[in-house]
Write the structure tokens for this entry.
Amino acid sequence: MISVIKKNWHQSVNWFTHKYADWNNGLESGSKWLRWLLLAIVVYALITLTLGIYWNWKPGEFSVNTIAIEKAQDTNRQVVTGSVTTSTLIHMADTLLEKPGGFISNDIMPPGIWLDNMSNWEYGVIIQIRDISKAMREAFSRSQSQSTEDKDLSRVEPRFNFDHVSWALPASETQYKEAIVFLSSYHDRLLNKGISNAQFYARADNLNYWLRTVETRLGSLSQRLSASVGQRRINTDLAGDAAATQSTPAPQEIETKTPWLQLDDTFYEARGTTWALVHLLKAIEIDFAEILQRKNALISVRQIIRELETSQETVYSPMVLNGRGFGLVANHSLVMASYISRANAGIIDLRELLSRG
């Protein structure tokens, strides 16, 4: 009897021993897979973090004159009126698509989806691209209001106005690349002195047409940036016209304040806007040089460019600060608003000069 009990005891012990060994081996195998999974996650996080830092670097300035000469030499032709503005627009669009990380506003995967500062910078640039392409289609390329629009520019504008956050069917990049192709076709015809079906008319009224849009854009950005600290302002919507009316009544005082989470969005959109305008105004300075000299407005353009260039200085803070107006901490939005307001004042003065006979 005792021997039977001992035998059963030993069998039970052996069974539990084998089960424990199997469980322990399984645990070690599972731990190995868990370690590999954690290692893969860490490596992926490091790669995306490194790419995110690299992709978040904003493109620097380029020489609009050099770009125009290079593009003209590619076709064995010389720079003509309007080719600097056109080549600058092409290069700006190429920069959006070919910079590190490419166009990321429509990214749905890391790290692009995390880089909202770059996305807002891109939005500021694409808005200026849309405005100048509209001006080229409706004003710069037409001799008068009743003339026919250019066939390539009529295809450029709607493609640049395509939704900038569409990632498929079609993707934003596809539409923008098509716009660049049509814009390049217009540029090639513009350089060809053997044909006259592509023109760029450097006139004061044409330039004033585009500057009116620039003035509106900068005025809006300045207000949004200044609202970073919150302000109560008198409603001046109907000021200046005693007979003016509006659809619905509005309060006499309006309180405006940019939400805290949108401060950096507005700031980097302004950075993208001013980056684009610096290059476009430098191109305008060359293509409209004769008009600007005759109106004694060349210095005004250069001063506007100087103000906008100052807005491109390096931001050393790791985040956009939002201190009070005269507080201890800086307010980057108010600094940017100051530069943009001065540039906008210059635009207003420039438009007045161009309007004079």
